[in-house]
Amino acid sequence: MKAESKLWQKVKKHTPNITWTRVESWSSFGFPDLVGYTEKRGFFTVELKVTKSNKLTFSPHQIAFHVKHPTNTYILATTLDQRTPILYPGVMVKELAACGLALEACRLPLAAWSELEASLLLAA
């Protein structure tokens, strides 16, 4: 199983109160990997990124999407060991492309996988 598929499985497991739709990358260039929905929160998107190092790679289409849609978009990043997820608001995509996981200032508070759902539902 690919690393991003494993990340997707962890997201599903740790967010049972979010209805997810996984979007195939060929359907629309740059559109995030996941669309989440809850009645209280509405719709939001999540781009999944798995990296071997601190570097995060984004296509120009992915950057453009997050620049054009600065709210209700997120980037969930992790390293190959997938121990702790790192959640960023999508509006930080340019900084993430430049700095990678070294970008500490804009992380949404997440200490463990068990906190992912609460962070996505409370972030606005």
Structural overview:
With 124 residues, this protein is α+β, with helices and mostly antiparallel strands. It is 28% helix and 24% strand. The protein has four helices and five strands. The protein is globular and about 35 Å long. The mean pLDDT is 88.
Strand content: 15-25%
Largest sheet: 5 strands, mixed
Number of strands: 5
Helix content: 25-40%
Main sheet strand line-up: 1-2-3-4-5
Order of helices and strands: HEEEHEEHH
List the helices and strands and how they pair.
Elements: H1 3-14, E1 19-22, E2 34-38, E3 42-51, H2 60-68, E4 73-79, E5 86-89, H3 93-99, H4 116-122
Parallel strand pairs: 3-4
Antiparallel strand pairs: 1-2, 2-3, 4-5
